[in-house]
Write a structure and sequence with these properties.
By secondary structure, the chain is α/β, with parallel strands linked by helices. The protein has helices spanning 16-20, 44-48, 87-102, 116-122, 143-157, 168-181, 291-301, 310-314, 345-348, 368-371, 380-392, 397-403, and strands at 3-6, 26-29, 32-35, 54-57, 73-77, 79-80, 83-84, 106-112, 129-134, 161-165, 185-189, 191-194, 200-206, 211-215, 223-227, 244-247, 278-282, 305-308, 335-339, 356-361, 374-377. A seven-stranded parallel β-sheet has the order 11-15-10-5-8-9-16, with helices on both faces. It has a five-stranded parallel β-sheet with strand order 18-17-19-20-21. The chain has a three-stranded antiparallel β-sheet with strand order 12-13-14. A hairpin with a 5-residue loop joins strand 12 and strand 13. The longest helix is centred in the first third of the chain and has 16 residues, at 87-102. The mean pLDDT is 93. It binds flavin-adenine dinucleotide. Flavin-adenine dinucleotide binds at residues 208-209, 283-285, 309-311, 323-328, 340-342, 344, 346-347, 350, 360-363, 366, 379-381.
Length: 404
């Protein structure tokens, strides 16, 4: 295992490493610098040390598994009331890309009740095999059976990589499966790539979004990652599927559950910002909550919805479900209109996949203009009413915007 080392002869006990450590992982005890269990090996102390007395001693990872036994990608197909959730197609798209690089196969784990046609349909996204666990008691997501059956499948087919949606269901299932398999799991990946040796390179924001961390699981198999909805492009539907559906027997032992479901109440289908094709997004630049009504009018004219940055949620002006960004929703609309948004990395992380981005900001140096395809420097309270008026008169948005 890698660990931090100190040359106590060189060390002058200045305490700069203790001050610099963001995790309280360094202490001075009995006239010596010591690293505690909180140390994350981030090496901030190495840079802080004025006499170069600290270094990271790296040890080569020793693999405890025979990696050669693990091949291919397994995607968890999430279904709700018999409908396969769209994130599944995005995971299949990424799975096909990763498996293609290694010359391996993509399989799908689907559990539910009466899902034969959904399983057949998944073949049209280019996968090699859909493992179907079909049983009335699997109709709705129940954590114990879904975990046990997935672990049983993984034990049998030994996939190298497992992809799941970072949805409430995926976030609940993935850690349980990873714990049973005693393997690594990286949550909320924004990029995935694979090395020729099969190691999955999992990229995700870290340290509040200031750093994009690359995480690998070099000593364990399988490698597990969750990915948020709308972060990756979906697999294309094909006309000549080549794969097969494998109907798996459901062992009654695995259907046992300590959780008794007393009733079931479907969640009201709120108009989701994640699925909107047009988003008019409001930032702190709106200055007052009434600004949301103005942007709502523009969104209404364009058949879209209003999204917000985090400060507006913190102010209580908007609901959390409207927040776009690293700690909110990830969106990929056809049109994204950023109004009074500076373009902080944590916000951009959630909207940079939008097809066309327009930005309105009074500050010509606002970082949002680096992300936007089109920008207008000016006061949103002048520009947006003018846009609304022009659209009402029959102009299309882009014609009106570009004329502006
Ligand atoms: C761990 C962590 C997670 C985070 N997650 C998120 C997240 O998910 N989503 C998110 O949005 N943020 C998130 N943040 C916050 C993020 O860092 C920024 O603080 C936030 O995005 C800034 O929001 P803003 O652009 O609305 O405000 P500001 O940065 O204050 O920008 C306001 C902009 O409005 C412009 N402006 C002012 N008046 C006008 C006007 N009349 N007309 C036009 N333009 C005007 C200004 O020039 C300025 O550029 C997170 C932060 C952390 C630390």
């Amino acid at each position: 295992m890698s660990r931090m080392r100190v040359d106590q002869e060189l060390c002058i006990l200045c305490g700069q490493c203790v001050e610099a450590c963001p995790f309280n992982g360094v202490e001075i005890r009995d006239d010596a610098v010591v690293f505690t269990e909180s140390c994350r090996l981030c090496r901030v102390c190495v840079k802080a040390c004025p006499v170069s007395a600290i270094w990271l001693e790296k040890s080569e990872p020793v693999s405890t598994v025979d990696k050669e036994q693990y091949k291919g990608v397994l995607v968890f197909a999430e279904q709700r009331q018999g409908s396969v959730q769209p994130v599944t197609y995005e995971l299949i798209g990424k799975g096909l890309e990763l498996a293609g690089k290694l010359g391996e196969q993509v399989c799908v784990y689907l559990a539910g009740s009466n899902l034969s046609s959904q399983a057949e349909d998944l073949l049209y996204y280019g996968v090699d095999r859909v493992y179907l666990y079909d049983h009335p008691l699997l109709e709705r997501f129940r954590i114990e059976p879904y975990t046990s059956l997935m672990v049983e499948l993984i034990d049998q087919i030994k996939p190298n990589i497992i992809l799941m949606g970072a949805t409430p269901v995926g976030r609940s299932l993935a850690p349980r499966v990873a714990a049973r398999l005693r393997t690594g799991l990286t949550a909320d990946c924004t990029l995935l790539d694979v090395k020729p040796n099969g190691d999955l390179v999992q990229t995700r924001p870290a340290f509040g979004g200031d750093v994009m961390a690359q995480i690998v699981t070099p000593r364990h198999r399988p490698q597990m990652a969750t990915v948020r909805y709308k972060v990756m492009p979906a697999a294309e539907r094909i006309s000549n599927p080549h794969g097969e559906v494998v109907r798996c027997p459901v062992d009654e032992r695995f259907l046992q559950s300590g959780i008794e479901i007393l009733g079931f109440k479907p969640h009201e289908a709120a108009s989701s910002i994640t699925d909107a094709e047009v988003i008019v997004a409001a930032g702190r630049g709106i200055g007052k909550p009434e600004g949301l009504e103005l942007l709502g009018e523009l969104a209404g004219l364009l058949g879209g919805v209003v999204g917000v940055t985090r400060p507006l949620v913190e102010q209580g002006w908007a609901d959390y479900t409207q927040q776009i960004g690293m700690s909110g929703r990830t969106v990929r609309p056809k049109l994204y209109i950023a109004c009074g948004i500076s373009g902080a990395i944590q916000h951009v992380a959630g909207m940079r996949g939008s097809e066309v981005i327009f930005a309105i900001n009074t500050d010509p140096h606002a970082p949002i203009f680096d992300t936007a395809h089109y920008g207008l420097v000016g006061d949103l309270y002048e520009i947006v009413p003018a846009l609304i008026e022009a659209i009402k008169k029959g102009g299309s948005f882009d014609a009106v915007f570009q004329a502006g």
